[in-house]
Structures are given as C-alpha cells and as structure tokens.
Amino acid sequence: MHFLDDEEAAPEISRPMLLRIVGYFRPYRARMTVAFLAILLTAIFGLVPPLLLKSIVDTALPDGDLWLLGSLVLLSIGATALQNLIQVGQTYLNTWIAEHIAFNIKNEMYRHLEAMSLGFFSSAKPGEITMRIDGDVDGVEDVFNSTVVNALSSICVLVTTTVALVAIDWRLALLGVVMIPLFVIPTRKVGKVRWDIAGKSQEKKAELNDIIQETMGISGSTLMKIFTTEAREEEKFRDVNGDVIDLQVKETLAGRWFIMTISIFSAIGPMLVYFLGGVLVARGQSPLTVGAIVTAATLLTRLYGPVTQLSNVHVDVIRSFALFERIFEYLDMKPEVANRADAVDMSVEKGRVDFHDVRFSYAPSREVLHGISFTARPGEMTALVGPSGAGKTTIANLIPRLYDATGGVVEIDGQDVREVTLESLRRKIGFVMQEPYLFNATIRENLVYGSPDVTREEVEETCKTAYIHDFIMSLPNRYDTVVGNRGIKLSGGEKQRISIARVLLKNPKIIVMDEATSSLDSVSEHYIQKAMVTLLTGRTSIVIAHRLSTILNADQILVVQAGEIVDSGRHAELLAHSDLYRKLYETQFQTQDRQRGAESERTRAAE
Questions:
Q1: DSSP per residue, 370-431
Q2: Which residues contact 571 (CB under 8 A, 6 or more apart)?
Q3: Do the Cβ atoms of 50 and 165 come closer than 8 Å?
Q4: In the Cβ-directed half-sphere of 354, how many Cα atoms lie within 13 Å?
Q5: Helices marked H in 217-255
Q6: Is residue 249 scored above 50 in pLDDT?
Q7: Domains and CATH numbers, the chain
Q8: Is 338 exposed, middle or buried (0-12, 13-18, 19+ CB in 10 A)?
Q9: Regarding predicted confidence, which is higher, 601 or 439?
Q10: Environment class of residue 382 by beta-carbon count within 10 Å: exposed (0-12), middle (13-18) or buried (19+)?
C-alpha cells in the first residue's frame, strides 16, 4: 500500500504494519463506537442551521412572520448548542482513548527496553532512548486524538452535506463535487516531504536530548567545569537546537502552497453556485429559490472544509507512520541475553561457580576471552588481577549473564546459567560495583531497592554490620535523607558502604565484586574492609582486585592477561613463580600500598 509514487522513494505502509497499529486501538472498540456515533450526531446537527436558512430567507423574512423567524432562529441556536454539547463528550472520549493508547505503548516500550541486554545500553544514546519512549509516542498519540477523529468527522460531514446538497438540487451538488479532486491532488508530494522532515526532526531532537543528558548530569557538568568547555558545549547545543527549529519550521511550512490553492478553490466554489443558481432561476429551468441557492452555497462551504481537513489528515497519517516506524524499530530489537523457552528456576545450594573453556566476543571479529577455565569454590574468595583491559570485568559480567558467553559454559552448582531464568539467576547473585550507583531518593529507598519486603529492624541491623548505621543516624533526616543525583551528597566510602548493605539485605549465595576500595581514602577503606569481611564470609565471592589488602585475603588468585588466565595460586605462591604477578605487585599494588601507608601516617600526625 503506497501513499506516494514508487519513483519518489515513497515509504511503504505494509498490511502487517497497519494491523499492528490497529492492535493498539482494538481494546477500546466500545468507546470508539460511542465516539463515532457522537461524531455522526455532530455532523447531522451541524446541518440544521444551514437548512433552516432556506425557510428564513424564502418564508420568514419575505412574509414578515416574526413568530416563524424567532422559532427558526431559536431552533438553529438550540441545534448548535446541542452539537457543541455532544462535541464536549466526544472530545473527552477521544482524549481518554488517545491517552490510554499512549500509556500502553510507553509501558510496552519501557518493559521491552528493560529486557534489553547490557550491550544495547552501552552503545545506545540516552537521549535517543528518551526520545523513542517519550517524544515519538507522544507524537503518535495524535493519530487518534486528532488524525483519526478528524478523518471520521470529515467523512461524516462530507457524506451528510452531499446528501443535503443533492436534495436541494443535483446540478448544484454536481458542481460542488466536481471540484473535490482539486483539493486532493497537491497532497501527494507533500506527504513525502513531511515524512522525510519528520524523521530528520526526531533524530535531531534525540541528538539534542543526548547533549542535555550528557552535560546537565552531575558527572558531565563537573567535567565541563573542570575543563572549562562551557562555551564550546553551549555552541554545540545552540547549533543542534537551531537545526531542530529549522526542521520544525520546514515541517510546519511544508505544503503551505497547496493550502493556498485550496483556499482559492474554497472561495470560488460558492461563487459558482450563486452564478449557476442565478442562471437556472433566470432562465426558468429550475424551481430554485433564493433561499435554496443561499443554503446550497453555505453547504458547499461546509463541504470543502472536510475535504481540506482530509487532505491534511493524509499528510498527518504519513507523519504518524514515520513515528510508528521508529517505535516498532525499537520494539523489534531482540535482547542478546534472554530466557530460553525451556528455562527453569535456578536453585543454589552451595554456590560453586565453574567456567569451562569460556570464550566471549563483543564483536564477531574480536574475541576478548580465550578459553577461560576455573572454579570458584563455595565460601571462598577468588580474586581476578591483571593489567587494565585484560578481561577481568568481562569475566565477572558473564556470571549474572549481563552478557552471554559465545563459547564454553558457565555453571553454578552444576547448572548452565543459560538454562535457568534470568530472574532466578540474578536473585542468587550480589553485585558490588567499583562506582556504586544510588538513585536520587532516600537512603532507606536505596537500601531496600532489591529487597522491598525487609523490615526497618533488618535494615538497621544490616547497616550496623556494614558500618554505616552510625553515619546515617548522624544525618538530620537519618534514613530518610535524600542522597541527591547519583548519591552526590555522600562521599565515595559512604556510598560504597550503603551499596554493600544493599547487597547484604539481598542475602545472596554468590558475590561478584569490582573491588570497592581502589579510590578511597584510608579511613573509608578501613570501614569498607570491615564491611567486606561480613559481606564475603560464608559466600562464594569473585573479586576484581585493585588493592594488596584484598589479594592477601584471597583463597585463589587468577592472573588474567589478554583474555586468558596465565597464572593462579595464593599470594605467596604467585610472588614466587609468576613474573606478571610480581610485576603487578611491584608496580601497582605495592605502590598503592606505600601511598596508603603515607596517607595513614599523615592522618595520625594530624591527630
């Protein structure tokens, strides 16, 4: 199905796409039926004043019948009032249906994007995601609230008015109908133009959202101030914002020339009716009266209004399909990590983690893990060490299936993690990130984020275990203190202890930890280390290590280089026989430890 010529590269509106769109309207069939009846009644009542005009001109005024004149005027006013009253109810129904359709699409989009894999979010722009969920869906909301309703209303007015015109005089009706194609022809090219502009406009809006989110967030804003790039970022924002404005102006003005033509035809039509009616009356070829001719001219004006509206509806439908196409593009994306059809709930008794010849690639041509094999035994700490970019975080991310291995098997208690449901798998795993993320909410809300059913007493006892309770109680609003965007009102150590308490409340069998003390001062590290003892005791833990203190406590250390495990053992063993580990120790861990020792000495001296 095409609205435009193939040679003009017109976008194709397929039957499956139409059926998919109709599916969003199907739950509201009953309300749409009532709305349609209201539209039909509105069109019928709209005919009353023009039809009464014939009696006013032909009878009431020439006869000087004031009672008849008053009755006809009151009847006309009453019909208009009733028409507008019905339109109020119709508008309520239209708005209710449109808002609920948008509500359902946004929910579907959000639910679908929640299921997308980490790879999607690592490459997608935040502004683009926001634009698809919010801007595009709000755009298609007009499909029903304006476009569909206007089309139905115009069709009803067109049909009822044509019937009334034919009843007055078929020749006048034919004159009016003959001019209708002149209103439709100019829309063909306009649809293609607005389609192209709409797509470009949405892309630029997404780019604008990206700039806002990246520079107005706490991290981006801080970076911008540190590097004094405000002027450059403002210029970039102004340029993109200017492009958005230019495209919106172009979209608004697209096709204004044909609207001018339509306006001319709208003015010519009634004049031709007066002329033809006058000729017929003058020649005595028709029983037409002055009132009938005036009524026909009035109805003709009413006829061309819907035709013009339908021309605009056609253009708006084209634009709406462009937005639906963008929405479906996201909804049709398949998550890289998903539950299998036969996935079962995972049961973790001991928490043993096994990697069997695991391989992984972010892209087909670039493998980053090459045959990783190891066992993390229940109740023990397995540390991953190695140079930056060696693949340590990638290994950790495969355990809760933030990514899926492209080769080999990851098992927990002998169960392939790909054969169990994601929810049951991730419920059994606690993940502590190097940079903890806190929502702009209260401390309590952040603590219970993964465990909403825990009691107040459990929260406070857990925070004592994580050595953060006393600090929280020192705050004016205690557990009801709002932490700010990304926890900006708290120090790194405070945020990390809250994140550890949050994982403790989840009480998982397995802990995956991107070691939490790499960028903290000595006091914060002291409390974090004490909290980690509680967190890791009795649990299987896989820790990406940055500090010597963590390495010393590990039951097993895996030395990772270029996506392979090149050595393994305990700290003393590796110092004795692993050149890479010894180098890491001397250049990274030992240097950091000396720095921490010097800092501790300065702290004690200051006291």
A1: EEEEEEE-TT-EEEEE-STTSSHHHHHHHTTTSS--SEEEEEETTEEGGGB-HHHHHHTEEE
A2: 551, 552, 554, 557
A3: no
A4: 12
A5: 218-226, 230-253
A6: yes
A7: 15-186+255-331 (1.20.1560.10), 370-427+546-607 (3.40.50.300)
A8: middle
A9: 439
A10: buried
Q: Is the pLDDT at 148 greater than 50, yes or no?
A: yes
The Cα diameter of the chain in Å comes to 121
pLDDT at 122 over 90: no
Residue 211: other Cβ atoms inside 10 A: 19
User: DSSP class of residue 124?
Assistant: S
Please give the helix or strand (H or E) that residue 145 lies within, else none. Answer: none
Residues 476-498 have pLDDT tens digits of 899 898 888 777 788 777 888 88
Query: Which two tokens mark 206?
Result: 């997404």
Supply 238's token pair: 């102004």
Output the six-digit token pair for 488.
């900006």
In this structure, the number of other CB atoms found within 10 A of the CB of residue 185 comes to 11
Of 540, 580, 537, 536, nearest in space to 559 by CA: 580
Give the pLDDT score at 561. Answer: 92
Nearest of 317, 313, 19, 2 to residue 140 by alpha carbon: 317
pLDDT tier at 551, thresholds 50, 70, 90: confident
Q: Could you tell me the two tokens for 361?
A: 């690639």
Check: CB of residue 96 under 8 Å from CB of residue 31. Answer: yes
Please state, in angstroms and as integers, the Cα–Cα distance from residue 397 to each residue in 337, 367, 544, following that order: 12, 15, 11
Q: Identify any residues that bridge with 541 across adjacent strands, giving them in sequence order.
A: 381, 511
Burial class (CB in 10 A: 0-12, 13-18, 19+), 517: buried
Write down the pTM of the prediction: 0.71
3-state secondary structure of 353: strand
- Of the CA atoms within 13 Å of residue 50, those in its CB half-sphere come to 23
100 has pLDDT over 50: yes
Can you tell me the distance from the alpha carbon of 40 to that of 223, in angstroms, rounded to the nearest whole number?
60
Alpha-carbon distance of 40 to 160, in angstroms, equals 9
For 313, the 3-state DSSP assignment is helix
Residue of 138, 26, 141 whose CA lies nearest to 95: 141
Kindly state the tokens that stand for 271.
């004049």
Nearest of 161, 177, 167 to residue 269 by alpha carbon: 177
CB 576 within 8 A of CB 567: no
Q: What is the mean pLDDT of residues 403-428?
A: 92
State the CB neighbour count (10 A cutoff) for residue 284: 7
For the stretch 516-521, contacts whose Cβ atoms lie closer than 8 Å and that sit 24 or more positions apart, written own/partner, are 516/432, 516/434, 516/436, 517/546, 517/547, 517/549, 517/550, 518/434, 518/546, 518/547, 519/434, 519/492, 520/492, 520/493, 520/496, 521/493, 521/599
What was the pLDDT predicted at 114? 84
Amino acid residing at 226 = I
